[in-house]
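Model: You mentioned two targets. I'll fold them one after the other.
Researcher: Yes, keep them separate.
Model: Target one:
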Amino acid sequence: MNKIGFDNEKYLSMQSEHIRERVDKFGDKLYLEFGGKLFDDYHASRVLPGFAPDSKLQMLLKMKDEAEIVIVINSDAIEQCKMRGDLGITYDMDVLRLIDAFREVGLYVGSVCLTQFADQKLAKKFERTLKKLDIKTYRHYPIAGYPYDVDGIVSENGLGKNEYIETSRRLVIVTAPGPGSGKMATCISQLYHDNKRGVKSGYAKFETFPIWNLPLKHMVNVAYEAATADLNDVNMIDPYHLEAYGVSTVNYNRDVEIFPVLNRLFQKIYGEEIYKSPTDMGVNMAGNCIVDDAVCVEASQQEIVRRYFAALVDRRNDKVGDAVVAKLEFLMQQNEITVSIRKAVAAARDKQAKTNEPACAIELNDDTIVTGKTTRLLGAVSAMLLNALKTLAGIDDKVMLLSPSIIEPIQRLKTVHLGGHNPRLHSDEILIALSISAVTNPVAALAMQALAGLKGTECHSTVILSQVDVNVLKKLGVNYTADPIYQTKKLYHAK
């Protein structure tokens, strides 16, 4: 699927302008709580075709001279060595990764705030690491009665105990490596301290999903529910916005539930109401930039099925329980979505049934289906990729892109010299071998030129993919799913 449903350039312009307007509304400073991923937002790019994975980052770059970033991390998450599931690194290491990534593109990272700080051993160690790297650090402490004891929170013994984060720019982006970080609490703490200092500052929230000005049951919003099935988020009509303005908008349960408390905190700090609804707090303009609704609906249906397969694999690996899978099944039934919309699923399973070998199928952007199976030399993903490249490049299927004489020495290297047990070549090894062959083999060179044609394609494997193959498919822009079955009966499966 390579159809465009979202105007990315319009979004960059409209979103940055809307944030500037919100800064101006409050005067001196705006703390913008940034939910979700600032870059590598592949969920958004999948359900809103045309949305670039780094759109939000590019939007901020339009305002880089007026913005600084504060990264927030929960001290308990450091102590528990919480991991990012998509990257396989701990939250504290992700903070360093984020700082590097922001600096690389010219965004100013002002400081790191350690929330829920209670002298945790690993949190103190990480704090020392940051200071050695000349990164400003601040501590925010647990507050008794948070978030409901408003009087206790908005006091010297509550927010008053937190260290004040020194900022130098009008727009302060508050972001974090994961959920439950304390981003909102950090913003509220800053509002309290600013107010004491006579600084006119405000708060706003940036969440891409659910999209507030799309219908509640629009597929894009349903896809968000699917993506957060493990968090038990539920989209709902914002009752406060409906009451205040007579207009139906969409928000999610956690923001709606906390709004009365948040509103009371704002009133306690400012002496007046600054927002009438959770929707008012938001600044998201994505819904105004959809240019082809049908394309986004179709893309979102595909995403829901992908999330379902991912949950099946996670359940097989004991990462989620039956409830998550059941919720996704319910969403699919409710919206009359079946796995059959992913044509690659049936094709892969048919290939396996015919060959009695693990198989993989890919649906190219022109709807052509290409398959591959596990062989003595290649894994199923590797075989599928080579066959797909031949199709894209117009190379006859009988042509062998890589001869056994090239593959077998690599196999010997893996097994004899490096002590590996699986002689078959993974997708990264196949692509490296193909790129080397391309130097002397014009056909291989032709296949390499076709790599870009894989972006936006859909593939399915009849067995759980290795992490190597997952990473390669991600980098190639291939949307993948897999049946929750391992290729072998081993108890340990290397990542």
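Model: Target two:
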Amino acid sequence: MAEATVISTPPSAHSGTADTGYGSKSYRNYILGILLTVYIFNFIDRTIINILTEPIKESFGVEDWQMGLLGGPAFAILYTFVGIPIARFSEKHHRVWIIAGSVFLWSLMTVLCGFATSFIALFIFRIGVSIGEAGCSPPANSLIADYFVPAERSTAVSVYALGIPLGGMVAYVFGGFIVGSLDGPIIAALLASWNWTWAVNALDWQNIEGWRVAFAVVGVPGLIVAAIVKLTIAEPPRGYTDPVEMQNREQVGFREVLRILSQKPAYWHVTMGVTIASFVNYGVGQFFVSFLIRTHELSIFDASVKIAMALAVMAAIGTYMSGYLADRYAKRFPKALALIPMFALIGVIPMHVIGYLAESLWLAVPLMMVGQMLLYTYLCPLYAVPGGVVDSRMRATAVAVTLFIVNLLGYGLGPPLIGGLSTILNATFLSGLDPALTLEACKASNLTAAAQGACDSANADGLRWSMVLFKCLYLWAIFHFYMASRTIQRDMGR
């Protein structure tokens, strides 16, 4: 099938070969950098809701279980169901255009989140974000496979996957800073100092909370990134780095892709291991800043900028190192893609359980930092294995199928279930402290000091123990990574 016309191709893009990759080394690095930037913005816009949980909860008067719905199903349902059709479309059509359009859509929807007048409106705009983000990873991973030869793909994929922790880190920094120091009245005062009377009169700045400003600030730059993608990334020939016998072959149907994947046990075990890890990670991540605020009485700025950002840096290190080590030791240890996250998760469980239960931040934070570095080793196989068990005709679809499972079960169920468990445990702890108190009663503004203390304690302990219980589920993921290690060499042709 004829390939879409390549446009806006820099001269350096044509200097590579099928043995070295598409384009010059510097151009390939540029492409990887742009795709990383796209994925960073993908997770900035996805993660920002985690930092804003507490102020949104207060603004709309909702409970943890409702915020869990906002962080999970609102995003995951359409993200997963739209992802596969987009991936099938990208198997035949211009992948660069698909990515550029997707970035534009999700960035616009993120900006609109700041204008939501109700919880339902915010829910709908988050669905819009999810539809846009569904068009990112499948075509991006397909592009990476055509730009980079197999011996370099795990490293390239791990660099791309850095978008998850780095996007989270940027979201924590800007979200925490904006909510803590930039709201409508402050912006109005700044505009007035510039004599921009027209801007001051354009909106009711006095009633614009910081979380609304945060959505707008992180969403607008994505519109610029969309233009950069469209104008500077060349569409490589599909299957460029594949063996000659695999190139220019007839496209395969969706059922055939599923049939081939069904013959790869390592793929399904890696997918299940990643899904369980994501289930826990997305669920805990949704409420991590809230945990620090409730349990350790930190401000939203200190919780997000000082602590959560430090954990995001460690997550980035773990993400990159897993891919680098998998490529470096591929010949000596062909099972590394499965064994690295398996052994890492064994170490994560005690570190995170002790860290979440610790009363002292000086003990909790170092344990959580090391645990976070180990945890994020699961991201490399998330992309490397689906792209490695199939050929170029199916890579976007294979990644989309994987993300369908991971996000529907992991992202879709993790936040609402941990939010629901937190609400149940909150009520349980509250009844133990004061049987006369209820969750609804804790929302009153005229509580006694004793009643307020009981409400705050139960609110903190309910969330803390729900997170600890979730972390124990990593044992299930460990089992699947071990099972994947038994056949991964054969299934990936290593």
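Researcher: Noted. Anything on target two?
Model: The chain has 22 helices and no strands.
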